[in-house]
Write a structure and sequence with these properties.
The complex is a heterodimer. Chain A is an alpha+beta fold. Chain A is built from three helices and nine strands, in the order ββαβββαββαββ. Chain B starts with a helix and ends in an 8-residue tail after the last strand. The chains are: A alpha+beta, B alpha+beta. Chains A and B meet through β4, α2, β6, α3 and β9 of A and β1, β2, α8, β10 and β11 of B.
């Protein structure tokens, strides 16, 4: 590594960076970007400054967060019962949610137009209202339809691993 | 506010426990926590500043081992001494049943902690390796009679066995008459580009204003990454205002691997060890994460804690391992669950 004389930032070989290793980035990167260690010419890239994560924790500590999630997350799917013809882009989908969502601040975190499925984020105090409103929707543009709530959780991470969707070949 | 309106605004109960320690600390309980969470359906790890999977991790993933599906297996097969002597060194059979089944079974159990004033669910626990459960003992005969004749119960089972090199039967040969099928856990790999990552300091679990993010913020951010949620929204965006917690940095690439199946705790410990060994050589990454999801419909979560599967069913934990081997362990459960240990 060498310090840029202007900024003083540390720079490492770009090949070393792609491997996630700074082991051979300890060597000099020439002004033309060539690394003396691996002789690659991918150029130099900034290295993160060392964080203050040096001293080990003296002893284990524990913290409990009860009902601390401000938001709840819902994985839902829009089901059409009468033929096709309903196309909803992300903005239309959000508009539909707003129209049934009892004036709650809802975020559409993900939306898949092909399957009409989405992940919504709602303030925890509005979960029951939104869920009820989605359940009560029976038609859209004069066609029978429904929302299916596939999964709901106060933890967004929980929505990425649903064993109830596990498929065995 | 009237009672019905107040109920509309009630938040379902949930709990997030965060533990901070060091991987090599003598009192660190990371291995105990992993071992006590038996039923895992999904494991994923994220390595910032990494574009290629290290060989050591690749070999752990390759050797993660099969799991098995046995359909229409009678429950009494799991309490025979042939099965116990072959596969169960120490363990209990825990059955969660509704009121009618419990009364028909005629075995001693206890009411579910989460069944309310009118008990509609019972938990029956049978210690298979207790001396009182020896062959020909009264208890063993009673249990066998209840499960075989009084109320025969049959289920589709997912089985996995940590075979410490013991010779003799394997699950495949033991259940060959039950049309047992072997399955390999599915692994998916992806490299995420230009990922906004929160800045973390290992000794600041609650975060520090303008210096580092908290464990809770990291947990939510990781959920966004695993669900492919876009985080470059503005406060005035129509679709979503969700964004990366601050302070954050942008990493050029990050390696995300996800393994789905029925994964044993011992394999997760091996993965965790290899993630610690990732920092044996100097690395650009400040930290790596390992996330484990439990089965939503398991009757237990950690150890023998009753798991309320009637609602969301979430029971998951996440390790953040720092360069200096400090770690954060976040354990999350939803409604109808005991506090994780």
């Amino acid at each position: 590594m060498r310090c840029s004389p202007v900024t003083g930032e540390r720079r490492a070989c770009a090949v070393a960076r792609s491997l996630g290793s700074i082991a051979h980035a300890q060597s000099t990167v020439e002004p033309d970007g060539r690394c003396r260690s691996c002789d690659s010419n991918k150029g130099a890239v900034p290295l993160f400054p060392a964080g203050p994560n040096i001293a080990p924790t003296p002893s284990p500590t524990f913290h409990r967060f009860r009902n601390a999630s401000q938001h709840h997350y819902m994985k839902i799917c829009f089901v059409k019962f009468q033929g096709g013809g309903i196309r909803l882009n992300a903005a239309h989908f959000k508009q539909l949610i707003i129209s049934v969502g009892a004036a709650l601040p809802v975020d559409v975190l993900t939306y898949e137009e092909k399957t009409l499925s989405a992940i919504l984020r709602v303030p925890s105090s509005g979960l029951v209202k939104l869920w009820s409103a989605l359940t009560l929707l029976g038609s859209y543009q004069n066609r029978k339809c429904a929302f299916r709530v596939i999964q709901t959780s106060p933890f967004l991470l929980a929505l990425s691993g649903n064993s109830r969707e596990l498929i065995l070949d | 506010m009237s009672v019905p309106l107040r109920r509309l605004r009630e938040t379902p109960r949930h709990l997030l426990v965060c533990e901070k320690s060091h991987m090599r600390h003598e009192r660190s309980r990371h291995a105990a926590h992993v071992r006590s969470h038996a039923y895992n359906c999904r494991v994923s790890f994220l390595i910032p500043e990494c574009g290629i999977l290290p060989e050591a991790l690749k070999s752990v993933i390759t050797d993660i081992g099969e799991y098995y599906l046995v359909k229409n297996l009678s429950l009494h097969e799991l309490v025979t001494h042939e099965f116990i002597n072959t596969f169960v060194k120490k363990g209990k059979l825990i059955i969660s049943v509704d009121k009618d089944t419990y009364e028909e079974l005629g075995l001693q159990g206890r009411p579910s902690q989460y069944s309310g004033k009118k008990v509609m669910r019972y938990i029956v626990t049978i210690d298979l390796t207790d001396s009182a459960f020896d062959p020909d003992s009264k208890k063993h005969k009673r249990v066998l009679w209840a499960l075989k004749e009084k109320k025969p119960l049959e289920f589709d089972f997912l089985l996995s066995w940590h075979n410490k090199g013991a010779e003799g039967s394997t699950l495949m040969s033991y259940f060959s008459k039950n049309q047992i099928q072997a399955h390999q856990p599915k692994a998916t790999f992806s490299t995420l580009r230009n990922l906004q990552c929160p800045v973390l300091h290992s000794n600041e679990l609650h975060g520090k204003l303008e210096e580092s993010c908290s464990a809770q913020e990291l947990f939510e951010w990781l959920g966004a990454v695993c669900n492919k949620v876009g985080l470059d929204n503005k406060s005035f965006s129509f679709l979503s205002t969700c964004c990366c917690p601050q302070p954050s940095t942008v990493v050029e690439q990050a390696y995300l691997c996800t393994i789905t199946g029925f994964i044993l705790p011992e394999k997760i410990i091996q993965l965790l060890e290899q993630l610690c060994c990732y920092f044996d050589e100097p690395k650009l990454a400040q930290w790596v994460t390992l996330t484990v999801h439990g089965f939503a419909d398991s009757p237990v979560s950690w150890r023998e804690s009753e798991h309320g599967f009637q609602k969301g069913g979430e029971n998951l934990y996440n390790f953040v391992v720092f360069r200096n081997l400090d770690y954060w362990l976040q354990m999350a459960v939803g409604a109808n669950d005991d506090c994780p240990p």
